[in-house]
Every structure is written in C-alpha cells, then in structure tokens.
Amino acid sequence: MKTYFLKSLFVFFITISFALHFNNATAQTFSHQKNLDQFLELMSQKGFIDYSDLIKPVERKHIFSLLQELKTNNNLNEVEKKELAFYLEDFKLEDSSFMPNKIVPPNFPHFFKKPLDQQNLFLYKDKDFGFIVDPFIIADQAFVNGHSLNTQAVGAQFLGYAGKRIGFQFSFQDINQLGQIDTIRLDNELPGIVRKASTNPRLFNYSQMNATISYRFNKGNIVVGQDQNIFGYGKTGNLVLSDKSPAYPFYVINYQPVKWFKFNYMHAWLQSGVINDAASYSTGNSVYGGLRKTFVPKFYAVHSLEITAMPGLKFNLGESMVYTDQLELAYMLPVTFFKAFDNQKFNDNILTGSNGQFFMGFSSRNQIKRTHIYGQFFIDEIRIGSMFNAGTSRNQIGYQLGASMADAFIPNLTLSSEYTRINPFVYRNFIPAQNYTNANFSLGDWMGANSGRLWLSANYRPKAKFSLTGYMMFIDRGGAGTIEQQYFAVPQPKFGFDPQYQRTKLGFEANYSFWSKASIRIAAAQTSQKATNGASASSSIREASLGIYWNKF
Fold first, then answer.
1. 11-21: per-residue pLDDT in tens?
2. Is residue 240 classed as helix, strand or coil in its secondary structure?
3. How far apart are CA 85 and CA 91, in angstroms?
4. What Rg, from alpha-carbon coordinates, does the chain have?
5. Please, which contacts does 192-201 make with residues 24 or more away whose CB atoms are closer than 8 Å?
6. φ, ψ dihedrals at 353, nearest 5°
7. Dist CA 106 CA 490 (whole Å)
8. pTM as predicted
9. 156 pLDDT higher than 90
10. What is the pLDDT of residues 353-362, one digit of tens each?
11. How many helices (H) and strands (E) does the chain have?
12. Which of 385, 417, 493, 512 has the highest Cβ tally under 10 A?
C-alpha cells in the first residue's frame, strides 16, 4: 500500500509538471516580514498596487514586483517613498539589475563598512545560484506586574535560489525565557509552542524550525516543508488558519491559470496530542517506564478558490478536513470534494468519518477611498433547513468583519477595527484527535469557541521606518460546554452561555526599523479581566517591555 501511494503521488506531481507550461518560470521563496507586509497592505488599501495576501507567507518575487511597481507611482508621500527605498534594499537576490552577469563574492566586509545599503550579513549571487544568510536574534526585557521576564533567542536563517525554478529557505532559533512565564499559551494571542524539558522551573525553553523548498511552474508552484500558514486578513486572529499553532510539515500546490482566478491546496501532517495505546509497545527494559508511546496519526487538508470580481474586490471559498488514523489518497489530491468523499466512503457514519469545515470570505480595497473592508465566515457545522429556527438550529459557526482607513484625518494615520465572533462548540469534535488543532493549539482563531472579540487601533508613522500604535481589545468569553451539549442539547446553548469573563486590554507600541528585518520595539499594556461566573476572581496585569529583534526574512 505504501509503495502504491508513493508511486501515485509521484505520477500525480509529474503529470501536473508536464501538463503546465514552464515559460518564464522563476523560483520562489517567501517573506515573513511583518513590517513589510503592513506597508504593502497600506499601499494596496490606497489603490496603488494589487497585493495578494489572502494566504501568507507571500512569495518574495510577488513582493519585489509590487515594490518595483510602486517606484513608478507619483502619488506616494515622502514617508512612503523613503520606506519603499528602504524595503527594496532587502531584495538583491530578486533584482536582476543587481550584477546579474557577475559574481557577487561573500561580503562580510561590505556589511560592516556599509550596513545601510546591504541589509544581509552574508550574500552570494551569480547567474545560476544565490543565497543570503542572516542571524535570528531576540533580546527582550519585560516587566509583568513588577516581575521580570527576560527573553533571549539566537539562531540562523538562509534563503536562496537554485536556477530559475527552485527556491529554498531555512530558519532555526532556540528561545529561552526566564522569570514571569506563561507556559500554557492557550488563552492569549501568543504563538503556541512545544516545550522542552528543563530542570529549572523558572526557565522556559523551546525552539522553532521552519524549512521549505519550492518548485515554480508558469502558472503556479509546489512547496514542501514545515511552516505556519495563515489564511485570512485578520489583524488579531484568523478563523481558518492562524499562527497560533506550532509549525507543521506540509505540501502546497498553488495554481493561477488566469489573472482573476486562483486555486490553493495544502495537505499537512499534524500532532494529535492523543496517545494511541493500541500502537504503543514494550521497549524490553524498565527505562522511563519501558513503554514506547505513539500518538494517533492526524492529518489536515484544505483547498480554496480566490476570485477577483473587479479591481480591489475579491472573494474566497473553500473547505478543509481534519482526519486521523491513516493517510487517505483522496484528501491528498487537490481536486477532491472532501465532504462528498467522506460521506461516500464511510456511508455518512459519524463514528467512522472525519471532521470537515467550509469557509468563505471577501476583501474590498480602495472601493471606498483608502479603505479596506474584509470578512470571513467559517462553518464547522450547520443545518441549512433550520438555521433560523432557535429550537432546532445547530449553527456552530464563526465570523469576522474588519475595516481600516488610511490617511484618516491626517497623512500616515491609519484607523482600524475588527470584530470576531465564534459560536459555541466550533473547532471541537467528539473524537479528540479530530479537534481543529495541532499539538493541542487551535489551527484557527486563538480565542476559541463561545467568545467574541472587538479590536480598535490607531497607527501613526511620523517618519519613515518609525511607527506608533495604540490599541484596545475587548473579549467576552463563555464556557466550553460539554460534548453531550454539543451533540444532543435541544435547543443548542446560545452564544455567551455560561459566561466566564470579560477582558479589556489597552496597549501602546513604538517600533523603529534600522534594517528591514531588524527593529527596536517599546511596548506597554494593561489587561483587566472581570469574572462573570462568580467563581474566579478578577485580575489586572500591567506589562512593559523593551526589545531588539532580528526577525525572519
């Protein structure tokens, strides 16, 4: 069976490769830079470019083409012109005019002599091959309610191109936190991690590793690797895929046959967090209990369509499937209708089937001048015939609506708002291994079910590379409920049942970038949480931090 699957997968990829044209194909790597992403979002919101950022990370060559397009735009203000020139300096590999027919030698001396016009620690480029190397550094000192929290991270990253069709990336960092540590990371926006064992109870140590290799054809690409994939436009979380879950192995196929239509597919290998007792076996000794433990195998497949209806207006539609126990070839094929296959193969038997979801959304940029309006609708379970009947409906859904206005009242001031609501029991399944999670962290929005979140922010850029942000976030959270309530309660518990708490967070950040990936950040926030169930106590958290960051490419 394994040999048959590998042969089938090989034939499938070869068929795709030869079925599509390779003219003008170029290799792809991807950008994770938050500041650059925010700049391009702003430029697209003002109608200067068409930024394709529904799925992140975004291809660097797409970003470079947009930066090049902005060079010819006469409507940029002085701050935007300087930021454009600043970001372009980080795209030497993608810029064919940068010594395309000459060898660019390793340039450590150049970096130390002229750091402002060469933003990479190491760069090599010739006509067939090129790569850049940078460090990965975090040095952050924070105080939480007067208690110290020190975060230090070191690592390395590189990316490059081999020929015209192959791109590659790798990054690794080892992170240590000492002091007032949040080791759970479930009820906040902090990315989820897999903790390492430590003999020091005050030391929190974990690592992050991402690696991808891509093959580019004329109308799309194939990517294999390990990373976090984000789906949506949300600023405080995303319903379909977010960065809450730790990175996972995957392969991706993206195909764009025409300018107005895109097809995206991903299959991923997840960590179920559920021990498979039947597959565990004795090691033949007594070391660490003498039992080899294994987890229930868990997988995830998702595909979506993105349609550009008119300049600035885009719609997306897709489905996903969380399944367990063994690989299914049908879910590994991009064109399968997942839900139909699940119903047919398992005779629509809930005890033997998988956990499917549907989603849809939209994005409108500059149709209202300098404004971005977006939304996402996520369906975990719904009964269409009774969706408006309070007695029999099973509307286990989530939705998000957001709006942002650039140059609001004064130049370089952006005002944003976002509301997210997730109904009871979304993301959860009666089979724990089929929850919408990876390593017990949500694949979707970090807030979880039976919760609502309102976010307001103001961002001002008084000068290039320098931004000031103030924000307010309000969360109203209800209880998780029981599995029996989820599947058998009639009527279903209403949104907000079993209220737990109301949380208000006020914060401020100042960020200055001295290289495209390197920045200094000052932040302060106060979080007040009021218990609404009468059981837990109210609390207040004050935090302030100062840090230096050299982030991902």
1. 444 444 434 44
2. coil
3. 11
4. 24
5. 192/244, 192/245, 192/246, 192/438, 192/439, 192/440, 192/441, 193/246, 194/246, 194/271, 194/439
6. -90, -165
7. 68
8. 0.90
9. yes
10. 899 999 999 9
11. 7, 27
12. 493
Two structure tokens written together for 223: 């990517």
Half-sphere exposure for 152 (CA within 13 Å, toward CB)? 5
551: left (phi over 0), alpha (psi -120 to 50) or beta: beta
Q: Cα(216)–Cα(218) distance, rounded to whole angstroms?
A: 7
Q: With beta carbons less than 8 A apart as the criterion, state whether 116 and 514 touch.
A: no
State both tokens at 404: 């942002």
User: Which residues, other chains included, contact 502 with Cβ-Cβ below 8 Å and sequence gap of 6+?
Assistant: 474, 475, 476, 477, 529, 530, 532
Condensed to tens digits (0 to 9), the pLDDT of residues 186-224 reads 888 888 888 776 667 778 888 999 999 999 998 999 999
- Residue 252 tokens, joined: 């991706």
Total residues found in the chain within this entry: 553
| pLDDT mean over 308-320 | 97
Would you say 154 and 163 are in contact if contact means Cβ atoms under 8 Å apart?
no
Question: 472 and 504 in contact (C-beta within 8 Å)?
Answer: yes
* 8 Å CB contact between 175 and 207: yes
Q: What is the DSSP track for 316-377?
A: EEEEEEEEESS--GGGGSTT--HHHHHHHHTTT-TTT--EEEEEEEEEEESSSTTEEEEEEE
Higher pLDDT, 148 or 17: 148
Q: Give the amino acid at 111.
A: F
Q: Which residue has the tokens 């993105």?
A: 306
Q: Which two tokens stand for residue 143?
A: 């105080």
CA dihedral of residues 239, 243, 249, 255 (deg, nearest 10) = 60
Task: Please give the backbone phi and psi of residue 392, each rounded to the nearest 5 degrees, phi first.
Answer: -120, 0
Structure confidence at residue 26 as a pLDDT band (50, 70, 90): low
Span 166-183, pLDDT tens digits: 999 999 999 999 987 777
What is the maximum span of the chain, computed from C-alpha positions, in angstroms? Answer: 73
- Integer Cα distance of 129 and 145 in angstroms: 51
In sequence order, the 6+-apart residues with CB closer than 8 A to the CB of 190 are 182
- The CB-side HSE value for 133 (13 A sphere, CA atoms) comes to 7
> How does DSSP assign 476-497, residue by residue?
EEE----HHHHHH-SSPPPTT-
Give the Cα separation of 87 and 297 in Å (integer): 42
Q: Render 166-225 in DSSP notation, one character per residue.
A: EEEEEEEEEEEEEES------SSSSPP--BPP-S-TTEEEEEEEEEEEEEEETTEEEEEE
Return d(Cα 313, Cα 309) in angstroms, integer. 6
pLDDT of residue 534: 64
> Which among 339, 334, 336 has a CA at the least distance from the CA of 354?
339
pLDDT for 382 beyond 90: no
pLDDT at residue 7 greater than cutoff 80 = no
Angle formed at CA 228 by CA 3 and CA 507, multiple of 5 degrees = 165
Give the pLDDT confidence of 412-449 residue by residue, as tens digits: 999 999 999 999 999 999 999 999 999 999 999 999 99
Indicate the helix (H) or strand (E) that contains 161.
strand 147-162
